[in-house]
Amino acid sequence: MADNSAANDSKGSAKIMQRCPELKEKYTKCFNSWFSEKFLRGQIMQDCQQEWEDYKDCVQLSLAQKNLEYIKTLDPMLPTTKQQQEIAARDANATDKS
Questions:
Q1: Local structure of residue 80 (DSSP, 8 states)
Q2: Phi and psi (nearest 5°) for 76?
Q3: What is the pTM of this model?
Q4: Are 63 and 71 in contact (CB under 8 A)?
Q5: Through-space distance between the first and last CA atoms of the chain, rounded to whole angstroms
Q6: Torsion over CA of 3, 8, 13 and 19, rounded to 10 degrees?
Q7: Neighbour count for residue 35 (Cβ, 10 Å)
Q8: Model confidence over 66-78: pLDDT tens digits?
Q9: CB contact burial 84-96 (16+ within 10 A = b; e otherwise)
Q10: For range 23-30, the mean pLDDT
Q11: What is the mean pLDDT of residues 42-55?
Q12: Is the dihedral of CA 51, 53, 54, 59 positive or negative?
């Protein structure tokens, strides 16, 4: 008997990935509406928390199914390797001049 678990996982992952763009669009519409109709008029409480949570959960589940959970731990505020090299070179030049 053939093992179809990989094929089934692939189909399940595809269904989730198909759903994520729909959830992203739903969140984007909600956010844009809130921003233009409420935030710009002084109402700072966001209305789209549930839409955001649904989209975030979808992406996180998709990452987990592809064994990419580590991406969630990456800090977007950390400098890239190129930026780190530029900083190191700048610091080295500053040290050489002193």
A1: P
A2: -65, -15
A3: 0.57
A4: yes
A5: 73
A6: 180
A7: 12
A8: 888 777 676 666 6
A9: eeeeeeeeeeeee
A10: 95
A11: 91
A12: positive
